[in-house]
Amino acid sequence: MLDRLIQAGLEPALVIEECSDLATAGRQELEKQLQKIAAETPLPRSLPEILAGRNVRCVETANHNDAESEELLTALCPDLIVLGDTRIIRNKNILDIPDMGIVNVHPGYLPTVRGNNPYLWSIVHDLPQGVTVHFIDEGVDSGPIIARQRLYLQPRATYPQLLAAINRLCGELLVEALCFLKAGGVQSLGQGNFENPGKKVFRLCPPEIKSAAIQKLESGEYHFEAV
Q1: Tell me: the pLDDT tens digits for 190-222?
Q2: CATH assignment of the domain containing 32
Q3: Cα separation of 44 and 30, whole Å?
Q4: pTM above the 0.90 mark?
Q5: Structural domain includes residue 95
Q6: In a domain, 227, yes or no
Q7: Secondary structure letter of residue 57 according to DSSP
Q8: Which of 108, 124, 175, 204 sits CB 3.0–4.6 Å from 8 for a disulfide?
């Protein structure tokens, strides 16, 4: 996503990268899956490759809610903060820093599927795939929606293909939403204005459920997979 932003001329003043065991495991798993389809989909560039030759400060943290992150962001006083593939911001002092708010890219179709691993839980419960860009509040993926888009998969799509498509759409929709925000042309809508069957908020998907979801996807049994 960061690569997409910079390519679109939306270069950040500061990047705070989460370097926790959970974040590292997530990045390694994504890379492992995308390696399987490297012949058909280019692998994402690493953070050092993306920032090479650019005057963008990069700081590592174990938790974006910590005192160091708060201090850095308070000193910078940005108009807007963008989250991508990281944990929820619980620190209210950080929530209050940017005048325009904090924008999150959620790899799921809100408000239908909130929480962790929405693309897997969508398969388990036969819910639509998609990506949502939204402002964050103190809840879990519950803030006003700026943009959202359904993702339609080919029959018997593989899990790596799903991950590649989700990541690609996250970058594209984020750029679109931020460009509209920059131009002052976006009005967000509270999630109460959208359909919300079940109001599901999911936790991290256990390995056995993940395996079952992947099998369901790749066997063609996922209800929402067809175009």
Answers
A1: 777 776 655 667 888 999 999 999 999 999 999
A2: 3.40.50.170
A3: 10
A4: yes
A5: yes
A6: no
A7: E
A8: 175
Token digits for 213? 């979801």
Q: Is residue 123 part of a domain?
A: yes
The DSSP-derived string for 18-43 is E-SHHHHHHHHHHHHHHHTTTTTSPP
Domain tally for the chain?
1
H-run or E-run covering 104: strand 101-106
**Tens of pLDDT, residues 45-58:** 999 999 999 999 99
What is the identity of the amino acid at 24?
Answer: T
User: Nearest CA to 166 among 94, 207, 125, 108?
Assistant: 108
For residue 224, is it within any domain?
no
**How many other C-beta atoms can be found within 10 angstroms of the C-beta atom of residue 117?**
21
For residue 120, give Cα distances in angstroms to 51, 102, 172: 31, 25, 21
